[in-house]
Design a protein that fits this description.
This protein is of the alpha/beta class. Helices cover 21% and strands 23% of the residues.
Length: 201
């Protein structure tokens, strides 16, 4: 069975000192590096938040405060601080993440009007990123997923992987939650398990 590792958004803005730092984010990087070292993956894919500066998910572009919600193109949109703006240091992958074996990079969140948590598609399900096509082209059947953040981009990447027909495993030790609310990470685990994601570790 051919397997791939999907590493979600291990970027400076989500790590320690970043604009949208996930608590404990830096702790997952050695674990992810070890996975790549000790396992044979047919493909190793990085996803990368890559937002235009005027992205509508940024509170600053809506005269709103971080943490508020608006309706954006018909669906609720959480207001985030400016983060992972294309071409900036914050959007770059963390320097400690070993990229020697990476075979493909998927950039997401590039459409000003629509956010994209999942590595597979935008939040409105209007546009696919090409990740599913890439994996199917390489006859991948099983995906293992790690990265940031568990209760947003990792969760939606996992559930979309299941929906696209992949055997899907989340490495619990390779992810951390934002936990805007304290229970968000826990709830994300429950939701993923209910939708068919296997949680490892």
């Amino acid at each position: 069975m051919k397997k791939a590792l999907i590493i979600v958004d291990v970027q400076n803005d989500f790590c320690e000192g970043g604009a949208l730092a996930v608590p404990g984010a830096n702790e997952v990087i050695p674990y992810i590096n070890l996975l790549m070292e000790e396992n044979d993956y047919e493909q190793i894919v990085l996803t990368q938040d890559w937002h235009p500066a005027n992205h509508k998910s940024f509170a600053s572009n809506n005269n709103r405060k971080v943490g508020e919600s608006i309706i954006l193109n018909g669906i609720p949109q959480f207001m985030w601080p400016d983060h992972c703006v294309e071409g900036t240091f914050g959007a770059e992958f963390h320097k400690d993440l070993n990229r020697d074996k990476v075979t493909h990079i998927i950039q997401k969140g590039k459409n000003t009007e629509i956010d994209a948590y999942s590595g597979f598609q935008d939040n409105n399900h209007f546009m696919k990123t090409g990740l599913d096509d890439f994996l199917k082209y390489h006859e991948i059947q099983l995906v293992e997923i790690v990265g940031l953040a568990m209760d947003y981009c990792v969760k939606f990447t996992c559930t979309d992987a299941v929906a696209n027909g992949y055997i899907t495993c989340l490495h619990f030790n390779g992810t951390r939650a934002v936990n805007v609310k304290p229970e968000n990470g826990r709830d994300a685990i429950y939701e993923m398990i209910q939708k068919g994601v296997t949680v490892l570790g």
